[in-house]
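User: I'm new to structure prediction. If I give you an amino acid sequence, what do you actually give back? Let's try with this one:
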Amino acid sequence: MKAVWQRVKEASVTVNNEVVASIGNGCLVLVGVEKGDTEEDIKFVADKCVNLRLFSDDNNRFNLSLVDIKGEILVVSQFTLYGDCRKGRRPSFTDAAPADMGRQYYERLCHVIESRGVSVKRGVFQADMQVSLVNDGPVTLIIESKRRC
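Assistant: Good question. You get back a string of structure tokens that encode the predicted 3D arrangement of the chain. For your 149 residues, that looks like this:
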């Protein structure tokens, strides 16, 4: 599982000219599911999303997590995170999980995050979405469950 984690002042997802999800202070996470991902990958990414200390304390140091600031998270599925651009001009998506698995793991990730006390908003799986955000910092990280060792 791969996630792009961005600290935001606000973020939203629009589908067919209708805002379907929006958050204030917190993070936007774009998430891709890979063939072969497991429950352990989901738990690893969920833990990082809620517990990374990337919010500033009173001394302007990264000492607070999403849980600490009682922030929100907007999770958006994005299979293109597994696009392989090494050959040619059209990316290959053979490493991305099939849609059914992707949907199941995406939903499971959201549930695990919610179980940790964080308010989760979702994009629409397999929809053509417009994602808006006000990046804070900017602070952006890539979380890869296969690189956890």
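You can read the tokens as a compact description of the fold. Here is one thing that stands out. The chain has a mean pLDDT of 96.
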